[in-house]
């Protein structure tokens, strides 16, 4: 089915970016269904995926209302092409092994937890309401992934090695968490968005605490990958969207 | 026959909607859970607000449908059911009766006064079977998004814990 074109005001772009983060990471977690290392983690990963997809639904619905062009949550999720997606490169990275999934979750949740908590004071009432839900959920994701990163890092030589490798691989995607552009600037000015620079110390302290307990070394900030917020993605997002969007593209408007 | 007073109508709708069981924990009603937020009599009929426990709670659309069926069956017409996010649901909204029902069902109820959770788990959870606090978490997530899986060292039974949220 043909793709839609979204008329992006700063608010629409800002909300879509958060919605895309949540949908893409939620979809990644759902890819573990039937493959998790144990039954309890199977439940955990699916439940966390569900939290994120729930957040994405609320955010897409709001982005559609803000755009006021008749695009509902499904149109925004299923009928935008890869280049129209605005998510962080971090969340689209493939699941890899369990260590990669847990490190990715830790790096994102350690950011999203204080981010949504700060967004509870947004001047935008809808974003503040979504934030109050998401904040509690992300606190739980943070706790879950932190416990696993400690267990894996401070586990066997092999689990330590794999977790260290995951950290090295994902670290270059963390710079984007704190990036801002003119979209952010205007909304920060208006009291609608949070300045991500104000979250950096909290994020670093949380990650450093977990990595310390996990006997892992925090990587140095070197070259950072960027581009997700403006639609320039790694090669992985297209494959993810192919699977995510297949049914609606093939049978437009299909419902349960 | 005179039309029922709006207050009576609202109270009847609240009673019937509130009695709808939670699809995932049928021992609790949505009133016990605090998921039923508001019942109003509007110009075109009854309006009901419900709130999700978690953003992705898959039971929300089923709860909305069950409320519609229950009110229609009672002859009150089809209500307009809306989902509201604010203020965010917390386990503090669960009634004391709901907590007792959960415990009797074998699920440890959430403690009152939901605070910020620590980065690493520090919850003390009493076993719903024997009351011992000599318990440990097995997994942060149980059979539904709102529960975790715990184990009691005193009576050796595993149990679900309705997470403080």
Describe it for me?
The complex is a heterodimer of chains A (256) and B (165). Chain A is built from ten helices and no strands. The mean pLDDT of chain A is 96. With 256 residues, chain A is an all-alpha fold. Chain A has helices at residues 10-30, 39-67, 73-78, 89-92, 98-119, 125-153, 157-170, 182-189, 200-213, 236-250. Chain A has a single domain, classed as Ferritin, core subunit, four-helix bundle (Ferritin), CATH 1.20.1260.10. Chain B has 165 residues and is of the alpha/beta class. Chain B folds into two domains: 6-89, GMP Synthetase, Chain A, domain 3 (2-Layer Sandwich), CATH 3.30.300.130; 94-162, no CATH class. Chain B is 25% helix and 21% strand. Chain B is built from four helices and seven strands, in the order ααββαβαββββ. In chain B, the strands form two sheets. In chain B, strands 4-7-6-5 form a four-stranded mixed sheet. In chain B, β5 (135-139) and β6 (147-152) form a beta hairpin. In chain B, α1 (6-18) crosses α3 (60-73). The chains are: A mainly alpha (256), B alpha/beta (165). Chain A: It comes from Rhodoplanes serenus. Chain A: One of its GO terms (biological process) is phenylacetate catabolic process.
Tags for this model:
heterodimer; A: 256 residues; mainly alpha; Ferritin; globular; B: alpha/beta; GMP Synthetase, Chain A, domain 3; 4-stranded mixed β-sheet; 3-stranded mixed β-sheet; elongated
User: How many runs of DSSP E, i.e. beta strands of chain A?
Assistant: 0
Order of helices and strands of chain B: HHEEHEHEEEE
CATH topology of the largest domain in chain B: GMP Synthetase, Chain A, domain 3
Interface with most residues: A-B, 36 and 29 residues
Number of helices of chain B: 4
- Give the oligomeric state: heterodimer
CATH topology category name of chain A: Ferritin
Structural shape of chain B: elongated
Count of distinct structural domains of chain A: 1
Could you say how many structural domains of chain B there are in total?
2
Approximately what portion of the residues of chain A adopt beta-strand conformation? under 5%
The first-level CATH class of the largest domain in chain B is given as: Alpha Beta
Figure out the total of helices of chain A.
Answer: 10
CATH class of chain A: Mainly Alpha
Biggest sheet of chain A: strands, sense, closure?
Answer: none
Write the CATH homologous superfamily of chain A: Ferritin, core subunit, four-helix bundle
- Characterize the biggest β-sheet of chain B: 4 strands, mixed
Percent in helix of chain B: 10-25%
- What separation lies between the terminal Cα atoms of chain B? 47 Å
The CATH architecture classification of the largest domain in chain B is 2-Layer Sandwich
Structure class of chain A: mainly alpha
